[in-house]
Amino acid sequence: MPPAPTPPRVVAVVVAYNRRDLLLEVLDALARQDTALGRIVVIDNASTDDSAAVAAAAGPLVDLVVLERNTGGAGGFAAGLAVALERHAPVWVWMMDDDTIPTASALTELLAAVSGTDAVVAGSRVIWTDGTDHPMNTPREKPFVSGAERKAAADRGLLAVRSSSFVSMLVRADIVRAEGLPLADYFIWNDDFEYSTRLLRGRRGVFVPGSVVVHKTRALASTDIDPGPRFYYEVRNKLWMQRASRSLNPGEKLLYGASTLRRWVRTFIRSADRAVLRDGLSRGLADGLRTRPRHNAVSLAGLGPVTDAVRALEGPHD
């Protein structure tokens, strides 16, 4: 019997902020994957607990980078991808939050789904602690998907998608080099939507039901359930996407824009503190219309090796 083929080199990127117990679970689960990882890059976003110490004690598989300031999820993943590509020569990069616990076969299933295909992004099935599919990370079939692409995915037990979530997203490294990094100025919210749709414009991505991760949020709820002050980022970042991002074509911008407006209405209806949402809406509209996200070399300036890695991948700011 011929030997099994060597799997491609995968480097995980985990962004951590003040959840040391969950981070410990994540790192343990990653170390126990059925398909071994090449390295794990942990970006500690200036945590005030001992998250960095937990990562530092996790063993030689972990490459810990401690940032001097909190750059949000968007900045953390931009930093992590840049470091992973500069230091560890991955073929694929596996991105996840520090509250995402992958099952032992999660990576194996992702790699099996993309093997021999032209897919450049693959996302996991995300469940909550009770085994229920998590509404925060529910996949949707790619709008306007061709019959051929739908069938090619369905024949492998997959779903053709137009976007994916940073909760568990496998990305081909050469596509990261071609398209650049997530936009750090998004800070939180819509950063994964903008980035994954940018990577997938004109390319193929899949949702992989057999790859399962547990998203240990405090509650089983979607992001549009009373987001509070964070609603500002939802509004500003969606406007930035409409105005400044190349991730969506004009037809998609109309489609997703209409969906966004409907979701905002539902958010206001369900909210117990609409004054906070009105403030977020007002400020988000103002900043989303008057400003644009800065180049990552500016957003992530002053962070030493991280800044250097970002500039090496995307170039300096002109």
From TrEMBL:
Keywords: Glycosyltransferase, Transferase
GO molecular function, one term: glycosyltransferase activity
Pathway note: Cell wall biogenesis; cell wall polysaccharide biosynthesis
Gene3D superfamilies named among the record's database cross-references: Spore Coat Polysaccharide Biosynthesis Protein SpsA, Chain A
Glycosyltransferase 2-like domain location: 13-161
Entry superkingdom: Bacteria
Family: Belongs to the glycosyltransferase 2 family.
Protein name per Swiss-Prot or TrEMBL: Glycosyltransferase, GT2 family
The species this protein was found in: Cryobacterium psychrotolerans
